[in-house]
UniProtKB/TrEMBL annotation:
Entry coiled-coil feature ranges: none
UniProt cross-references to Pfam families, sorted A to Z: ACP_syn_III, ACP_syn_III_C
Organism expressing this protein natively: Pseudofrankia inefficax (strain DSM 45817 / CECT 9037 / DDB 130130 / EuI1c)
Enzyme nomenclature, EC number: 2.3.1.41
Keywords linked to the UniProt accession: Acyltransferase, Transferase
Gene Ontology MF annotations: 3-oxoacyl-[acyl-carrier-protein] synthase activity
Ranges of residues in domain Beta-ketoacyl-[acyl-carrier-protein] synthase III N-terminal: 120-198
UniProt cross-references to PANTHER family, sorted A to Z: 3-OXOACYL-[ACYL-CARRIER-PROTEIN] SYNTHASE 3, BETA-KETOACYL-[ACYL-CARRIER-PROTEIN] SYNTHASE III
Protein name, as recorded: Beta-ketoacyl-acyl-carrier-protein synthase I
Family annotation (InterPro entries): ACP_syn_III_C (IPR013747), ACP_syn_III_N (IPR013751), Thiolase-like (IPR016039)
Residue span(s) of domain Beta-ketoacyl-[acyl-carrier-protein] synthase III C-terminal: 257-328
Top-level enzyme category: transferase
Gene Ontology biological-process annotations: fatty acid biosynthetic process; secondary metabolite biosynthetic process
Length: 345
């Protein structure tokens, strides 16, 4: 990627409230018992976390709340003081406000000031885009330590008083797939013996002439009475496109790095749902790699998910190990991937 090693020093994550199981979800919305079985069987996600109280609709956590917590945990894991951070990048599709930017509010909470901050409006590939942007900036030599974050609070887009039975399928599916959370990581251009090294990152828009697979609306005073659903997803289109795009991104990373499939120790697949992850892993066919997945237990947390995977990966990586992660965004079809290794001793 560059002549400068970009080291992944530490990762932190934050989830709001207790897990919401499929039983909790179906009971809250008065759905027939068969729905729980359907979610278990065809979606494969067992639980997720919401920033709102499912019983009352009260908002319990903001994205800034979760960002502060994830950021503090990442800095602690990296043994890095906030004063050492000289670059902050955050990605989200659901900022607390359009302005001020959520990244600046998180930085303020963490006591970070006087540094460049960037906020990327992105979907599921946003976490990889933060890695890409931060790594490129670190490679210039102008910056030494970056805090990158990604997160979403999707629950605020759902009307928990509404009946899922009356909603069209493209709206129903979002309540089953998505959860809230924020992840963060500390990257450094300082030499760090034994640290995981970010070897390559790729992000690419491939949506020319293709209809969006997911749409998230944002309403203001002028259109807040719009009849458009706040979130909708063409799940069939996602099912068709994501496995193929994943394989393409995976192959591209291996080709750039000169790695063979048998060189890969860990694979971090896209995390749309438990069932989709299983399908993707089957198509990737990486014979000796252990997959690192978390979507079954926390749901699709959008911009945060890659950080949850990376947090688990760092517990497993040993010197000489190599890992490849892929993320796919369906909103306008973006594919992204990254490669990490700990150099052999």
């Amino acid at each position: 990627m560059t002549d400068v090693d970009v080291n992944l020093l530490g990762v932190g994550t934050a989830l709001p409230g207790p897990p919401i199981t499929n039983a909790d979800l179906t009971a809250r919305f008065g759905l027939p018992g068969a729905w729980q079985d359907w979610i278990d069987e065809f979606v494969g996600t067992k639980s997720r976390h919401f920033s709102v109280d499912l019983a009352t609709g009260e908002r319990l956590y903001t994205l800034v709340d979760l960002g502060e917590l994830a950021g503090r945990r990442a800095l602690e894991a990296a043994a890095t003081d906030p004063a050492q951070v000289d670059l902050v990048v955050m990605s989200t599709s659901t900022p607390d406000q359009l302005m001020p930017a959520t990244v600046n509010m998180v930085a303020d909470r963490l006591g970070i000031d006087g540094v460049p901050t960037y906020q990327l409006q992105a979907g599921c590939t946003g976490a990889v885009q933060t890695l890409d942007l931060a790594a490129r900036l670190l490679s210039t030599g102008r910056y030494r330590t970056a805090l990158v974050l990604g997160g979403d609070s999707s629950a605020k887009h759902f009307d928990i008083s509404a009946s899922l039975l009356t909603m069209p399928p493209e709206v129903q599916v979002n309540g089953m797939l998505f959860g809230d959370g924020v992840g963060a990581a500390v990257l450094s251009a300082h030499p760090a013996h034994g640290a995981a090294v970010l070897r390559h990152v790729v992000t690419r828009l491939e949506g020319l002439g293709r209809a969006p697979g997911q749409v998230v609306e944002w309403f203001g005073w002028g259109d807040r009475a719009s009849e458009l659903p706040p979130v909708s997803e063409d799940f069939k289109a996602v099912e068709r496109a994501v496995p193929t795009m994943t394989c393409e991104a995976f192959e591209e990373l291996l080709a750039v790095l000169g790695w063979a499939r048998t060189d890969i120790d860990f694979v971090l697949p896209p995390q749309l749902s438990g069932k989709m992850t299983a399908r993707i892993l089957e198509q990737l066919a990486v014979p000796y790699a252990q997959d690192v997945s978390c979507v079954t237990d926390i749901g699709n947390t959008g911009n945060a998910l890659a950080f949850f995977q990376l947090q688990e990966l760092l517990k497993l990586l040993a010197p000489g190990d190599r890992a490849v992660g892929v993320s796919i965004e369906a909103s306008k079809w973006v594919k992204a991937g990254y490669a990490i290794e700990i150099p052999a001793l």
